[in-house]
Each structure stands twice: as C-alpha cells, then as structure tokens.
Amino acid sequence: MTVFRNRVAVLHGVNFDVLERRDAAIYGGISLTELEHRISDWAHELKLEPIFFQTNSEGEFCEYLHRSIDLADAAIVNAGAWTHYSRAIADALELTGLPAVEVHLSDVEARDDWRRLSVFDGLVLAKVSGKGPDGYREALGLLARELGAGS
Ligand code: DQA
C-alpha cells in the first residue's frame, strides 16, 4: 500500500474572510479566494495537496485542528490576531503533532508591540512573516522538504 504524505491543511483565522476589505497598504488588497488560488498552484508545483479552512470562530479553529490529525500531514497556520493571545489554539496545534509553519502576510515584528508575541513559538518549524502571499510559497517549500513530497 502506498502511503501519501502530501496533504497540507492551510488554516486562516479571524477576519480572513474579508481580507480584500482590510488595509491594502498592509495586506495587499487580495481576497482570500485569490490567495488560496495562488497557494493551490504553488502547492501543486511541489506535489502537495492543500486543504483550505477559514473561520471567525476560535472554537471551530480548534475543532478543525483536532480533525486535522486525520485530514492532513502538515499544516500552515495564519491565525490572524489569535496568534498573539490564543493559548487554546496553541494547545490544539500542539496536540496534532503535525509539522507546521506559521505565516503572516504582514511583518508582525515591525508593527504593534503586541503582534511580536506568538503563541506558536516553539511549536512550529518556522515563522514566515512580512513576505505577503509569497510567504505561503516559502512555507510550502519548507513543508515539502519536511514531508519528502515528490521524492
Ligand atoms: C496577520 C497579522 C496579525 O497580527 C493580524 O491580526 C492579522 C493578520 C497577517 O497575516 O499579517 O489578522 O496574521
């Protein structure tokens, strides 16, 4: 039996459903649908299969992480503002045991002080921040290497 390890859950948190309405100087004016299309193309180039999820509910985000154990082999997490305070989401990510990369469109280190703190510190392979949509491409590359996808 062939075991495929190429499924990457791409989770977006609060306010990403209205990404195109957020400050274009910070987030680029792109919609979540457009962002997911780009991620999908990059993933397929790397022989990865993306699975997309977005919610504005912290509990649903945790529940999706619980299900990710069966649905995915790795995760990309952009939890939006929850990144900076939701220990519940950090605990949920930890229990998945999945290799994960944290991504932010904006440079969270160069904005408000409170955005520098991430509950995912120590839980993720890498944090990619301030590279816009290209940050997801970098995250996919890191996970492809981790999973040995396409080899
Ligand atoms: C964000 C950065 C967070 O600080 C912010 O709350 C977001 C988006 C980003 O992708 O740049 O909602 O995660």
Give me a quick take on this structure.
This protein has 151 residues and is α/β, with parallel strands linked by helices. It has helices at residues 24-27, 32-45, 58-71, 87-96, 134-147, and strands at residues 7-12, 49-54, 74-78, 100-104, 126-129. The chain is built from 5 helices and 5 strands, in the order βααβαβαββα.
Name the bound molecules.
1,3,4-trihydroxy-5-OXO-cyclohexanecarboxylic acid
Number of helices: 5
Q: Give the overall shape.
A: globular
- Count the beta strands: 5
Structural class: alpha/beta
Approximately how much helix is present in the residues? Answer: 25-40%
Unreliable spans are: none
- Spatial extent as radius of gyration: 14 Å
Give, in order, the helices and strands.
Answer: EHHEHEHEEH
State the major sheet.
5 strands, parallel
Could you tell me how far the N terminus lies from the C terminus, measured between alpha carbons in angstroms? 16 Å
Mean pLDDT metric:
96
Strand content: 15-25%
- Oligomeric form: single chain
What spatial order of strands do you see in the largest sheet?
A: 2-1-3-4-5
What's the topology here?
Layout (H helix, E strand, L loop, with lengths): L6 E6 L11 H4 L4 H14 L3 E6 L3 H14 L2 E5 L8 H10 L3 E5 L21 E4 L4 H14 L4
Parallel strand pairs: 1-2, 1-3, 3-4, 4-5
Helix pairs in contact: 3-4
This protein binds 1,3,4-trihydroxy-5-OXO-cyclohexanecarboxylic acid (DQA).
Structure report:
By secondary structure, this protein is α/β, with parallel strands linked by helices. The chain is built from five helices and five strands. Strands 2-1-3-4-5 form a five-stranded parallel beta sheet, sandwiched between helices. Helix 3 runs parallel beside helix 4. The chain is globular and about 40 Å long. It starts with 6 loop residues before the first strand and ends with a helix. The mean pLDDT is 96. Bound molecules: 1,3,4-trihydroxy-5-OXO-cyclohexanecarboxylic acid. 1,3,4-trihydroxy-5-OXO-cyclohexanecarboxylic acid (DQA) binds next to loops.
